[in-house]
Structure formats: structure tokens, C-alpha cells
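User: Run a structure prediction on this.
Assistant: Running it now.
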Amino acid sequence: MTSAQKAYIMLGKESLWHVATRCHELFDSAQIPYSIARGVAVCLHGYQRNTTDIDLIIHANDSQRVRESLVHAGFEWAPEKVEFRSPEGVTIQFLIAGHLAGKHAEVRIPEPTGELNVEHKEGLNVVRLSRLIEMKIACGTGNLRRTHKDFADVVELIAIRQLDPSFARYLHPSLRKTFKELVRVANDNQ
């Protein structure tokens, strides 16, 4: 059993893990590139925190195939919320590669392909740590309601992964200063 899977069982979120692995199977079978982002990605990168939904990065031109795969597998489309629900009630939301990662950000949501953007963790395709941190900082900077949550995730990832200011070289130049400030915060709290 993987560490993220254990965390979700401990949190009573077994169905969330089951849906994540089911989405992987569906998209892998249909050869649809995807990567897991946001809360589940944070967990897969080592910060075991609770989340209630699954966020997947896809290409815009794969939207119809994604919809067909999920509907065929029994997932329900909720157009008013622009999301799917699994038969177990788990929400699945999508981020579109190339869209802005945050309001007024220079950073875009990464492609769900390529070793610079995606890595394989615990049997799933997950956005690479550097891209996850970029998205979290960009989103948190552009949306005050998300700032505390997104920045807290980055601080915890910095602490758990023992990242130092030199990791900033892997990030978009517009985010490096904020990242280094968050490293300082993470180190001050240890």
C-alpha cells in the first residue's frame, strides 16, 4: 500500500483514492494525457493533508474524450458546477493546460506530458513538484481567498522535502522571490 493511499484511508477518504486510480486507468487506456494537481498532488509529494476533490490537468482538445470516458464509466457531469461526480460522490475538476495558473500570473498551467511537467508517483501521473509549487504560488498570489491555503501547502512541502532557496532556479522567475520568502517562513517555523 502506498503512503498517499494510507493517508487517505486514515482520513476516511478511501473513495477519493479509488477514484484517482480509476481515472488513471480510464485515461491510460484511452491514451489521454493527464496529471494530478492541487491537493492530491500535494499529498503525493509528501504533505499528507486532507482534500475533498481531485483536480486533473488535461489538454483542451482532449475534453470530449475525457467526458466520453468518464460518462461511459458511470461518472455524472454537473454542468452548473463544471465538474464530474463519481458514483461514490467524489468531485473531479479539470485544469486546462496553457491557461493562467492564477489571476494576473505570468505562469501557465503546465502540459500534462513530458518529464519537466509530470512524474509517476504511487501508480499515478502527478504534476512535478516544481510545477505544483509554481501553480500554488501563482494561484495564491492572485486570489486572496486561496493565499493562506496555497502558501501553507508550499511551506509544508518546503519543510517536508527539505527544499532550500536554491530550488527557486526550477521556478518561473516571477515566483522566485516569493518562494524564497516561503523558504524563510518554513525554516523559521522549525
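The chain has a mean pLDDT of 92.
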